Every structure is written in C-alpha cells, then in structure tokens.
Amino acid sequence: MRNNALVVVDMLYDFIDGSLACLNADAAVKATLRYIDSQTKGQGGEEHEILDTFPILFVRDHHPADHSSFMEYGGTWPAHCVAGTRGAEIHDELKPYAREELTFDKGCDKAVEQYSGFEGVNTAGQSLGEILELMDTTDVYVCGIATEFCVRNTCEDLHKAGFRVHLLKECIAYVDHQGHQKAVEEMAAKGISIE
Ligand code: VGL
Ligand code: ZN
C-alpha cells in the first residue's frame, strides 16, 4: 500500500522576498502549485476535498523576535520569520491548502535552532512525524526552502524515521547554488529520491 503526502517546508515570505530571500524562490512556489494541481486533477476543485485524498502539511519557521539564531542575538542569520509578521506567513497562493491541524511550527524556543520540520508542532501539540504516522503515510514528497537547511534536515529526519522520501527538485529554493547542489547529491546518496 502506498499512501502519499506532501510536506511544504518554509514557503514563507521572509524566504521568498524578505530578509532571507532565497534563490529560485518564486519559481519554486509556482512549481509547487503546479505539482499540487497535477496530483489533484479530477478530484473536484474545493481545497477541502483535495486535502482529503492528498494531505498537504506545512512547516513554518516561527521565531520569537529575540531568537538566538539572529545576528543581533549572537546567531548567524538576519532576523526572519518572526511570529506575527508578514515574513512568517505562508505564500498567499499556497495558504488555501493550509489547515491548522496540518501546520507545524518550529524554532519557537528562542534558545534552540531547529532546522528540521520533523519535530515541528501544530496548535494541538502534535508533531509532523506523529501525524504522518497517524495517516499511515508511506511516501512523503518534500518541497520548500532552503535546500541546504530546513529542506535537507526535514528530508533526512523523515528518511531516518522510515518514510520513503521524494524531494521535488523543481520545487526548492536555496541560499547558495553550489550548496544546494551539494546538499541534493548528499541526500541522494542517503537514499532520498530526487524527482
Ligand atoms: C532556515 C535559515 C534559518 C530554513 C531557517 O528554513 O532553511 N534557514 N532558519
Ligand atoms: Zn530560522
């Protein structure tokens, strides 16, 4: 039995056109929308019907304003994805597919850098990994931003947990092109399938 789900990692405005805007972000969002369309054709146009047969889970980087990963607090990144700001919002065209129970926040604790979405939690406190298990998911398709950080860590944790992981290579954006290529090669070497 094959049970698919899509995980959309950090397709948030700060990574698209904000303080940490990534390369290929606009193209990745468009390709993701096309992918969702291609998987849901003929299933009725309503987003809620689509979600019944093809669950789409969203991961959000969701930081307090004084997060330790920000330069002004000793970290390496410009301030980004601060809870309550536009930069932390899911892209408007993807938002209609986001359900509260399938939206998982990470990086909420100011002391902890959390690149992986695997342990992100929804408002009920359930983790992404837990929900995928509950849905009897076998195959997880992953897209999002950034290849080298959150996409990679999320894919690797999913793979370790025993899911078949498929990385949608047209649907990812990155901080650095070479870093992106290297990360994709290393993921492939671990058994993550690149599609
Ligand atoms: C990310 C840098 C800082 C990511 C998150 O989503 O890849 N990168 N926080
Ligand atoms: Zn972050």
Q: Brief description of this entry?
A:
The protein is an alpha/beta fold and 195 residues long.
Annotate the secondary structure layout.
Blueprint: E1 4-9, H1 13-16, H2 25-40, H3 47-53, E2 56-61, E3 103-106, H4 128-134, E4 139-145, H5 147-160, E5 164-173, H6 177-190, E6 193-194
Parallel strand pairs: 1-2, 1-4, 2-3, 4-5, 5-6
Helix pairs in contact: 5-6
The protein binds pyrazine-2-carboxylic acid and zinc ion (ZN).
Zinc ion binds at residues 61, 63, 69, 80-81, 107.
The profile of the biggest β sheet is: 6 strands, parallel
| Helix share, percent | 25-40%
CATH architectural label? 3-Layer(aba) Sandwich
Instruction: State the end-to-end CA separation.
Output: 21 Å
Bound molecules: pyrazine-2-carboxylic acid, zinc ion
Strand content: 15-25%
Descriptors for this entry?
alpha/beta, globular, binds pyrazine-2-carboxylic acid, 32% helix, binds zinc ion, 6 helices, Rossmann fold, 6 strands
Describe this structure in words.
It is a single chain. This protein has 195 residues and is α/β, with parallel strands linked by helices. The chain has one domain (4-194): Rossmann fold (3-Layer(aba) Sandwich). The protein contains 6 helices and 6 strands; from the N terminus they run E-H-H-H-E-E-H-E-H-E-H-E. It has helices at residues 13-16, 25-40, 47-53, 128-134, 147-160, 177-190; strands at 4-9, 56-61, 103-106, 139-145, 164-173, 193-194. Helix 6 links the parallel strand 5 and strand 6 (193-194). Helix 5 runs parallel beside helix 6 (177-190). The longest helix has 16 residues, at 25-40. It binds pyrazine-2-carboxylic acid and zinc ion (ZN).
